[in-house]
Write a structure and sequence with these properties.
Radius of gyration: 16 Å
Number of helices: 8
Low-confidence stretches: 10-29
Distance between the termini: 36 Å
Mean pLDDT: 86
Shape: globular
Strand content: under 5%
Oligomer: single chain
Largest sheet: none
């Protein structure tokens, strides 16, 4: 695939995101069990992109499993806080920003000191977990979205390690564009 083709693919992928509905968190009021939790990270564009992105960024940098483990741990803490009624001001805008920032880190192949990268991933996860805790407050749903998140993080990690670097970086640029679009919707 030529660079010209990659650019066209990236532009088309970015533009196709504009056609998606603005509802990144569709109707969770009907069902709040394990399956609803399992489905949520796959159906909420912001969560899907952020978790795949965090995994891809860690895989791209060939970091240890500390990053995905931190994400899962901090997401659980955020979810417990959300279930307890504690909210984060500007949560939806913050979640959209995590997508844009993660995409930018991938596009630039940003290599931060391990402690700083883990700290950022932890903050991102806290926001995502808090949203999950508000939307899916049942313990069974928590098990579902934790499992789905682990799958997405490890899938992203695999992508970041095995795909050609330029393809991963183009995907990061497309993710940044998607995050900016999501920020504009909030």
């Amino acid at each position: 695939m030529t660079i010209f083709s990659l650019k066209h693919t990236a532009v088309l992928a970015s533009l196709s995101l504009l056609a998606l509905p603005a509802m990144a968190h569709p109707g969770h009021g009907e069902a709040v069990g394990f399956l609803a939790g399992l489905a949520h990270p796959f159906t909420g564009l912001d969560h899907l992109l952020a978790m795949l992105g965090v995994g891809a960024w860690g895989g791209q940098q060939r970091l240890s499993l500390t990053q995905p483990a931190t994400f899962l741990g901090m997401m659980l803490l955020g979810a417990l806080a959300g279930m307890a009624g504690l909210g984060i001001p500007g949560l939806e805008m913050g979640i959209a920003a995590t997508v844009a920032l993660t995409g930018m880190a991938i596009a630039l192949a940003l290599a931060l000191p391990n402690w700083l990268g883990i700290g950022l991933v932890g903050l991102f996860a806290l926001a995502h977990g808090n949203a999950h805790g508000h939307e899916l407050p049942a313990a069974s749903a928590t098990f579902g979205f934790m499992l789905a998140s682990g799958i997405l993080l490890m899938s992203g990690r695999f992508i970041g390690q095995v795909m050609a670097e330029r393809v991963v970086r183009v995907a990061g640029a497309a993710m940044t564009a998607a995050g900016l679009v999501l920020m504009g919707m909030n």
